[in-house]
Amino acid sequence: xxxxxxxxxxxxxxxxxxxxEMKDSTLQAxxxxxxxxxxxxxxxxxxSRQALDEALRLARELDNTSLIAEILSYRSNLLLGKKxxxxxxxxxxxxxxxxxxxxxxxxxxxxxxxxxxxxxxRSGLESALxxxxxxxxxxxxxxxxxxxxxxxxxAGRSKAAADHAAQAVQAATPLGQKDVLFHARHxxxxxxxxxxxxxxxxxxxxxxxxxxxxxRQGLKGEVLTQFLGRRDNVAFAQDAERIxxxxxxxxxxxxxxxxxxx
Length: 262
What we know:
This protein has 14 helices and no strands. By secondary structure, it is an all-alpha fold. The longest helix has 19 residues.
């Protein structure tokens, strides 16, 4: 969740080796679950799907309902990113039912937020946000605000989008949620540009740049290429260069290009 992807992949690879040596199916399924989640976040859709599918097979064999719920929520997010909405919806419905069966508040919240995201439901997102705030599940507050910001921006309500993004930044900063912070800077940059506030938009872009630089640290070869080529980063590159150029920030344009170079 901190966006330290190089370290996360290293720990997961080490853990996977140990789990395989121990022939511990529960540990194998757990590690594959988080490997699938990290792979999705860095832009490796194929690697993510392979890990999540294998994790799900093991979790079903073990009849591990809690793990099944988490895997299906993550796979739903992956499918949504590939525009496979029907399959994503089916996965998250099963995930939510499984999570509720266990009573695990964390996994229930993962599924609820994903369900509202797929549906584009403002009321669903607001409900998930209130639940996160009241139950102490702080890690979900910023993502909920971020999804609400996306809805507002899509509806043409730039100011409301910027307000939710600012609240996402406030919630994510103490938790060090770098990827959420990165998106929560990119989104208001677009909103502010739409309002004609180019300099303020450029400020958001320059705040996002060090986050991008930190997330790519330690990534090499194909993994780095996948990360730099993920859809969110490509969109950021286009928006950021346009905004920085309009604001006359030549030095930051050079820094942006360097950050996006393998």
